[in-house]
Design brief:
Blueprint (H helix, E strand, L loop, with lengths): L2 E4 L20 E2 L2 E2 H11 L4 E6 L3 H8 L8 E6 L5 H13 L4 E5 L2 E3 L14 E6 L11 E3 L2 E3 L8 E8 L15 H9 L3 E5 L4 E3 L3 H13 L1
Organism: Denitrificimonas halotolerans
Keywords: Nucleotidyltransferase, Transferase
Pfam family, one: NTP_transferase
Length: 221
């Protein structure tokens, strides 16, 4: 199974840290954020990784190279302007192949075991969900056993940015800039999405405050 790390965002909410440094290279406890993902993917048995990028993407390529230092083979999907989550994955499909692939948002930190993603996919997507953080109290989806549902008033969970997707999820797409969420919601309505609830450590590193949260968390480990 191949994996794609989504790393094309500009990190506007992280400025001025991202003015000259792409968000995936912002250090956390002295280690660039994206390196936590790469090390975890290698440990989980992945060998082929795609990274999409736009803003200051050349710095990501210069820092990570071909991935040999992590025991990986990295390919890059370059975007002139960020294509959002759906558009970025669609553009990279030629590098991801015809089989299901893992997706990891580049702006999260987690101790989720990516080896758990290396399982047969029964539908179009498998999502890793968790209890809603304070910045997303309404949630994104609900879960009934392994079946993902649309959220309701008394039951919702947050999508962690970790998933397994089948290329067929994108078969009606035409490229360009678009988000992944509408595709997932349509697939949920078609009963084609499974999921799991993750109870470990996870932070959406989208602001300087949440960056400090991860720093404090790692200091306690």
């Amino acid at each position: 199974m191949r994996a794609i790390i989504l790393a094309a965002g500009k990190g506007e909410r992280m400025r001025p840290l991202t003015a000259h440094t792409p968000k995936p290279l912002i250090p956390i406890a002295g280690v660039p954020l994206i390196e936590y993902h790469l090390s975890a993917l290698a440990q989980a048995g992945f060998s082929e990784v795609v990274i999409n990028h736009a803003w200051l993407g050349e710095k990501i390529e210069a820092h990570l190279g071909d991935g040999a230092q992590f025991g990986l083979h990295i390919q890059y999907s370059r975007e002139a302007q960020p294509l959002e989550t759906g558009g970025g994955i669609f553009r990279a499909l030629n590098l991801l192949g015809d089989a299901p692939f893992a997706v990891i948002n580049g702006d999260i930190w987690t101790d989720y075991d990516f080896a758990d993603l290396r399982k047969p996919l029964s539908g179009l997507a498998h999502l890793v969900l968790r209890d809603n953080p304070e910045h997303n109290l309404e949630g994104d989806f609900a879960l009934a056993g392994e079946r993902v549902l649309l959220p309701c008033e008394d039951s919702s969970l947050t999508y962690t940015g970790i998933a397994v997707l089948h290329p067929k999820l994108f078969e009606d797409c035409a490229g360009g800039t678009f988000r992944l969420a509408p595709l997932l919601r349509t697939a949920v309505q078609q009963h084609a999405v499974t999921g799991e609830k993750f109870t470990g450590r996870w932070v959406d590193v989208g602001t300087p405050e949440r960056l400090a949260e991860v720093e404090a968390l790692l200091a306690r480990l």
